[in-house]
Specification:
It is built from 11 helices and 2 strands; from the N terminus they run βαααααβαααααα. The chain is mainly α. The protein folds into 2 domains: 149 residues, no CATH class; 80 residues, no CATH class. Strands 1-2 form a two-stranded antiparallel ribbon. The chain is elongated, with a radius of gyration of 25 Å.
């Protein structure tokens, strides 16, 4: 373990690094001179760019990705000086020295990108102070309620096991959320969905669970599919729509056109009407 890493330091990790910022060929490079980035401008991008300082934050994000791309393989998006979990976490002042972008921009970027509305960064715990009791390099993700993280590499140390340092507690699993997540076909970002789920009352949670079958039917009928966290976002409450009616409308809209024999309607020769 890096001796400079303390229990109070926080390590950030870029979510989906392996899928979004690496290709099959780039993974074989020990040192990269270029990097790839997604071209899709999703909700995270729009929520970041529309902020007062959004363009500057996005510029800092691109610079951060470039810095992390220079690490040795295997790269997993850890914001540390070595690119490894056990490395010294990058501070905003470190990134200013590396990129000439003001530290204040990076400080704001870390806060915004780690927010659940943008969801580009994952926050990881610092190391437990009592290192004699735990495996070296083991860390604990914040709000780690899911049984697995689809966007973490299977060989990542973060998945080696969940270790709770003394005095820390995790919230017990919610069986109703698990049922809804399963019924929604696990489509979306589970951690964000769980945070939204916890903001609802028991009555609303029951309504959400009851609405899922009708919503699934609407999707099968042709409605665009939403991610679970977007569907239950308390700000929009999409689950509260009449999805049974929406399914009927979608079926009518997407039904194949009826075949109508218009020959007799168009002909002026009435003698042909007998045929």
């Amino acid at each position: 373990m890096n001796p400079k890493t303390t229990a109070n330091e926080v390590v950030y990790q870029v979510i989906g690094w392996d899928k979004c910022f690496e290709g099959a060929k780039s993974k074989t490079y020990s040192n990269k001179s270029s990097c790839q980035m997604p071209t899709k401008h999703g909700l995270g991008y729009k929520r970041l760019i529309r902020r007062k300082n959004g363009p500057a934050l996005f510029g800092a994000w691109c610079a951060l990705v470039q810095v992390l791309s220079r690490h040795n393989k295997p790269r997993q998006g850890y914001c540390t000086d070595t690119g490894e979990i056990a490395g010294k976490p990058y501070k905003d002042t470190d990134l200013e020295m590396l990129t000439d972008i003001p530290a204040a921009i990076f400080s704001e970027l870390f806060e915004v990108a780690a927010n659940q509305d943008v969801g580009w960064l994952r926050i990881l715990r610092g190391y437990c102070a009592d290192t004699a009791r735990i495996p070296q390099g083991t860390i604990v993700p914040l709000d780690s309620d899911s049984d697995s993280d689809s966007d973490l590499d299977s060989n990542s140390t973060a998945k080696a096991g969940k270790l709770i340092c003394e005095g820390e507690h995790t919230k017990p699993p919610d069986p109703q959320f698990a049922r809804c997540w399963e019924a929604f076909e696990k489509y979306g970002v589970k951690k964000i969905a769980l945070k939204y789920w916890r903001k609802y009352s028991k009555a609303d949670r029951d309504k959400i669970e009851a609405a899922i079958p009708d919503y699934n039917e609407a999707v099968r009928a042709g409605r665009p599919r939403k991610q679970f966290e977007g569907w239950i976002n308390p700000e929009h409450r999409l689950w509260d729509m009449d999805w049974r009616k929406a399914a009927e409308v979608a079926r009518e809209k997407n039904a194949p056109p009826k075949l109508v024999n218009t020959f007799h309607q168009k002909t002026k020769d009435k003698s042909l009407l007998a045929f």
